[in-house]
Design goal:
Its main location: cytoplasm. This protein is α+β, with helices and mostly antiparallel strands and about 170 residues long. It has helices at about 10-25, 70-80, 165; strands at about 1-5, 30-35, 35-40, 45-50, 55, 60, 85-90, 115-120, 125-130, 145-150, 155-160. It is globular.
Amino acid sequence: RIHLIPGFIGSEQANWMFEQLLQDIPWGQRTHIRQEVCFEEPRLTSWYGELPYTYSRITMQPNPNWHPLLTMLKERIEEFTGYTFNSLLCNLYRDEKDSVDWHSDDEPSLGKNPIIASLSFGATRTFEMRKKPSPEEDGDYTYVERLKIPLDHGTLLMMEGATQEDWQ
């Protein structure tokens, strides 16, 4: 299930929060190695959580030092949704060239059917999802269902249930 909550953070407050996070978060760019080729992730990231987090064969070390604004946003989302969250990966897309590749948040450390909350700040970006092909389709994504969701400044996107199992 996917839930879209536009205006979860009002525009003026979102502007202030975005500026604070841009200035205060220790953004970094990670390097990946695939088939002996090194490349930098086309975005900046910052990890917060009590445990290490591994994706795409990169492990981010525990970072329990949440920025106070991130803690406040986490608590606000928890109060609104009724769920508890224990970690956060901040992504900063600097321009239209920055991106994230097709993926599912299905790492074993997240457990079965993790609940993902995504809060967007800044320019509107299109969040694309595609249904994973059935075994009969043998990994062919040509005819799978696709969604394009515009994420505006201050919008909250919730992904629940089997979303990570069934979609990228």
